[in-house]
Amino acid sequence: MYKLALLITYPIKHIASEAQSLAESAGYLILHTVTQKHLTRSKFGIGKGKADEVRELVKSLNIEFVIFDEILKPTQQYNLARLCEIDIIDREKLILEIFRLRSNTEESKIQIKLAELHYEAVRIKEKVRLAKRGEQPGFFGLGKYDADVHLLDIRRRISVLRKKLLKEEKRKLLQRTSRARSGFPTVSIIGYTSVGKTTLFNFLTGESKLVGIELFTTLSTSSRIVNINGNQVMFSDTVGFISKLPAYMIDAFKSTLQELIFSNIILLVLDISQSYEIIKKQLSSSFTVLIHLGVSNAKIIYVFNKIDLVNLEDAREKCQKLGILDESNRNFVMVSSKTGMNVRVLLESIRSKIFVNMMKVDNN
After folding, report:
1. In this structure, which long-range contacts are made by residues 323-327, counting pairs with CB atoms below 8 Å and at least 24 apart in sequence?
2. CA 67: distance to chain centroid?
3. Got the DSSP string for 168-211?
4. Taking the model in full, what pTM does it have?
5. Which among 164, 114, 110, 120 has a CA at the least distance from the CA of 140?
6. DSSP string of 20-43?
7. E-assigned strands of 12-158?
8. What is the CA radius of gyration of the chain?
């Protein structure tokens, strides 16, 4: 059952399209879209005139929720909610809702709950301040809480969840140590959400993991061993990235994403069928996570997926503009994870890079 919503986003086609996909992935049906060039204005995130327009649309279309495609400050979220008299779902909260819907392991559920508590902790002081002023609209879920008691409870719950994740990190460390002793090099498949990472994983491993057009189909890591010319290699499919992903969300998924730090090779998958601007955003968002985790750029092989959907010359031009055209070092490969085109070339690139890296380690 879809929840009826109005979307506020930027007047840029690919940004608006992603925002709508995010909303639909969380179970919202967008009845109307309002766009504005700036979504970070002081009081409502949008201008007063545009906020009044949203309020009228909410009433006339019987809108249940407003989806705001930006990270709002608690005061902005409250001000717009008070004006429209319904819940305002900002980009952070929307991503958290999708994560919650997609979680299918105990670890991912703990990670998501931890991120939700961080989100709530930032807002609780503002909620309490407003409640003490007597501003308690029911749609905003306010109550006369004691700030210290409420925050103490959130911190206690965060502490409990962190301890659980620490146990999971130790368990994974033992798994990695065991793999290292067995001599299996590891390859992690990463990239922006919906670029075809899981389709590539399935093709390489013979698996049949769920693949869909919805965002964040994968939230937990899956690993399988693949034989490459007599060499056993462990492949892992990881959670997809998204733009404007707050640092605390990356930290919440640290036990999952740490696999990248210890991988021998990282396949950074990009959708070559998209425009240069979109690919550039996908690349930037992926690098934001990799830099936050401290992952070495030397491990990366750029995998331009969906080559079957584009002209090869156009694809090469996009790679040139991105500054990724390094055939001599075998740092990029164009493939189709759907048809299998150039997958053998990719496997040879992986084998060669692993062999070179192992030679370097041995020489040191």
Report:
1. none
2. 18
3. HHHHHHHHHHHHHHHT--EEEEEEBTTSSHHHHHHHHH------
4. 0.82
5. 120
6. HHHHHHTTEEEEEEEE-S---BTT
7. 28-35, 65-68, 87-90
8. 23
CA dihedral (212, 215, 217, 223) positive or negative: positive
Structure tokens at 182: 């067995």
Please state the rounded mean pLDDT for residues 51-76. Answer: 95
Q: In what order do the strands lie in the sheet with 222-228?
A: 222-228, 231-237, 186-191, 265-271, 300-305, 332-334
The Cα-based distances of 60 to 6, 27, 57, 79, 139 in angstroms read 11, 21, 5, 20, 18
Closest by alpha carbon to 119, among 91, 84, 161? 91
Which residue type does 42 have? Answer: S
What one-character DSSP code corresponds to residue 241? B
Burial class (CB in 10 A: 0-12, 13-18, 19+), 157: middle
Q: pLDDT per residue over 157-196, tens digit each?
A: 999 999 998 888 788 778 777 766 667 888 999 989 889 8
Nearest to 243 by CA among 213, 300, 288: 288
- Which tokens is 209 given? 């993991």
Return d(Cα 291, Cα 353) in angstroms, integer: 21
Q: Which residues pair with 42 in a beta bridge?
A: none
**Ramachandran area for residue 227 (φ above 0: left; ψ -120 to 50: alpha; else beta):** beta
The residue to which tokens 């060669």 are assigned: 352
- What is the Cα 70 distance to its own chain's centre? 15
